Amino acid sequence: MSKSSTTMTDMIEEWLPNPHPGEILSEDFLKPMGLSQNALARAVDVPPRRINEIVQGKRAITADTDLRLSRYFGVSEGLFMALQNDYDLIKRRRQIADQLDRITPRAA
């Protein structure tokens, strides 16, 4: 019987989607509110290109953008940064999974 280091969490994570924060911004905030990218950009005082690139998944959420979006949408500061962090970690974990599997955790 072979011992596998793959956990159920690993298998589930492999199949779960990993949406970019821009997709969440678009699907959970802009569309339900009937808000255009340009209107949001004006409301939070950033260039429209910044919002467009975030929505297109071409730009990461920065602390500056997080603070502006959080204030505008009335959500906790750090929400959008947390989404970005989760996205980045899952994406990178998938990219280097084989390398991570070769690392033996050090016992405490």
Automatic annotation (TrEMBL):
UniProtKB keywords: DNA-binding
Record Pfam families: HTH_3
Domain HTH cro/C1-type: 34-80
Keyword set includes Transcription regulation: no
Origin superkingdom: Bacteria
Stored Gene3D superfamilies: lambda repressor-like DNA-binding domains
InterPro entries in the record: Cro/C1-type_HTH, Lambda_DNA-bd_dom_sf, Toxin_antidote_HigA
SUPFAM superfamilies per record: lambda repressor-like DNA-binding domains (SSF47413)
Gene Ontology MF annotations: DNA binding
NCBIfam families named among the record's database cross-references: antidote_HigA
PANTHER family in the record: ANTITOXIN HIGA-1 (PTHR36924:SF1)
Name under which the protein is recorded: HigA protein (Antitoxin to HigB)
